[in-house]
Amino acid sequence: MQSVAAERLKGRAGVRVERGFREEDRDQVARMFWEAFSGKLGRILGPQDLALRFLHGAVRPSHALTVLDEDGTLLGVAGYKTQRGGFVAATYGDLARVYGAIGAVWRGVLLDLTDRPMAEGQFLMDGIFVASDARGRGVGTTLIEAIMQEAARQGMQTVRLDVIDRNPRARALYERLGFIPTGKVRTRPFGRIFGFREATTMTCPVPPRPRSVKRP
């Protein structure tokens, strides 16, 4: 699949935010995703070589925002999901090509457990991750702000995310940016498989886009 055309969004000084990612960055996007979420998905998508092969084909630039530095180096990615699709999307056939027929069946069942219904007008943050050498530079905050802008552009009412119980720093960041807890997600009896027992669902209202004023 070809990457979507880059459209710049408002970013911080020294970086730019774009819709989608370049095809030549696909391997790096897959590696960064795996580094961020192997603790949660490692028992399902592993071993690493197969996981990277699967993710290479599963990540969708049409549902991603990226932060790049002035030289075009990829610093971070935020995936999102709407009722029209999500950042990581795959069929049984996609799983079978990497894991075989039997491996695809049980992996598909477990992956389905991570999928939650979405309300109309809801914009789900479907994974946010930053390159290890770019952490602490405000890239995560820039991505969240870009997610809010993109949700507004698409006419959404709320942004939703889930933060696991073992990540209090991320939860504190989301709260500073206006997200409030609205529920709990419990993984029992599959907590050991997913690497966490509980996650907090958080939402933030999307400010309406300002209407353009028609000149007389």
From TrEMBL:
Gene3D superfamilies: 3.40.630.30. SUPFAM superfamilies: Acyl-CoA N-acyltransferases (Nat) (SSF55729). CDD domains: NAT_SF. Keywords: Acyltransferase, Transferase. One of its GO terms (molecular function) is acyltransferase activity, transferring groups other than amino-acyl groups. The keyword Acyltransferase applies. PANTHER family: ACETYLTRANSFERASE, N-ACETYLTRANSFERASE DOMAIN-CONTAINING PROTEIN. This is Acetyltransferase (GNAT) family protein.
